[in-house]
Write a structure and sequence with these properties.
Low-confidence stretches of chain A: none
Structural class of chain A: mainly alpha
Helix content of chain B: 55-70%
Strand content of chain A: under 5%
Number of strands of chain B: 0
Radius of gyration of chain B: 23 Å
CATH class of chain A: Mainly Alpha
Number of helices of chain A: 4
Number of strands of chain A: 0
Structural class of chain B: mainly alpha
Oligomer: heterodimer
Shape of chain A: elongated
Radius of gyration of chain A: 20 Å
Largest sheet of chain A: none
Low-confidence stretches of chain B: none
Number of domains of chain A: 1
Distance between the termini of chain A: 47 Å
Largest interface: A-B, 45 and 58 residues
Chain lengths: 118, 234
């Protein structure tokens, strides 16, 4: 179970990086980056998973006294919650810059932006 | 073609690293020391049912303040980058745009209050259920998105959004400082009584803090969407 989730995450990261490397259109690169970002999140969450345990919420199913033996690791979940929000911020920023770039050159083709190329 | 081959080779190398990681990975049998501390102490120290919330809002509260700040910076930069291309006098009139359609119009009127209510429910119950300020804020912003879809030329909400955003941020920091003055440290939730474990009004200041985070995140996402939508109109 953990390995399936982790494999999915790794495959998504690979797809995302491949897409970002081969596509020339900036919007497609942004989509590829979000796919890779999702893959990283899935891998991080799956690291905290443990077989036969439940979510880290201390309700009727998880008495406080037995909590340490009944719940999965809450730390990766907290981390991923942060990572998702920051990922969304980064995506919004990339889209805004893409808009400005299109405004300047009238094109979203990355090969037309050679200012920093040596 | 060569470039594609290079990219494929790179992905293949990356895949080998991932495969080694995947085959060598063995899940832990027990919680590690940090996680076990959070699992056993949360009920007594924080009084929140949801341990993830306890970590985000109290144990690592300073990180969350930083995260909200990053989000604010993102919203501000999106506004700044797009501001120069904002539509001016030659903005399209409502008559230039195709009407949104009855389904969308009525649907928006019906759904927006419900979505706002659900968002508030999610962030107020963040210490009891798998919800919280960030999720609730995103739900609030989806209501704004629906309103923007119906009426892309809506202009009135800028001031309100920035008011909500800045006052939520201010109160968040004030609660943090109160925690340092009255309780154990910055953003300590015990400035309010912990209450009965599992009740809505429990876990000290966590529901208050999460409601503020929810409003702030919702306002930030909304302001990003409003900036993007206003630029699109040009």
């Amino acid at each position: 179970m953990v390995h399936i989730a982790m494999l999915t995450g790794f495959v998504l990261i690979a797809i995302g990086i491949y897409g970002a490397l081969t596509n020339r259109n900036i919007l497609r690169m942004i989509v590829a980056f979000t796919v890779a970002n999702t893959g990283v999140n899935i891998v991080l969450v799956s690291v905290g998973y443990m077989m036969g345990r439940t979510a880290p919420i201390l309700d009727a199913a998880v008495p406080v006294a037995e909590a340490a033996n009944r719940i999965i690791d809450p730390v990766p979940q907290a981390l991923v919650l942060t990572a998702i929000v920051i990922g969304l911020g980064v995506t919004a920023l990339m889209l805004a810059y893409a808009y400005r770039l299109y405004d300047c050159r009238g094109s979203l083709d990355i090969s037309r932006f050679r200012d920093l190329k040596w | 073609m060569v470039k594609k081959a290079i990219a494929l080779a790179l992905i293949l190398g990356l895949g080998l690293i991932f495969a080694a990681l995947l085959l060598g990975y063995a899940p832990d049998a027990a919680l590690n020391e940090t996680a076990a501390y959070y699992a056993t102490r949360t009920a007594d120290e924080i009084g929140a049912q949801n341990i993830v919330t306890a970590i985000i809002v109290t144990y690592r509260g300073l990180d969350t303040l930083g995260e909200v700040t990053v989000l604010f910076l993102t919203a501000a930069i999106v506004g700044l980058v797009l501001s120069r291309t904002r539509a001016g006098d030659n903005a399209p009139r409502l008559s230039d745009l195709p009407p949104p359609g009855e389904l969308l119009e009525i649907g928006t009127k019906l759904l927006v209050p419900l979505i706002l209510l659900f968002g508030a429910y999610v962030f107020i119950n963040g210490h009891l259920t798998p919800g919280g300020g960030f999720q609730g804020g995103a739900i609030l912003a989806s209501a704004i998105l629906l309103m923007l879809l119906t009426d892309p030329l809506r202009r009135s909400s800028h001031r309100l959004i920035s008011r909500i955003e800045s006052s939520a941020g201010l109160f968040y920091v004030v609660i943090g400082v109160l925690g340092a003055a009255l309780a154990g440290g910055f953003l300590d939730n015990r400035i309010l009584p912990l209450g009965e474990f599992g009740a809505l009004f429990s876990a000290g200041a966590i529901p208050v803090i999460y409601a503020l985070i929810g409003l702030k995140v919702g306002a930030e996402f909304s302001s990003m969407m409003v900036s993007l939508s206003e630029t699109e109109d040009e």
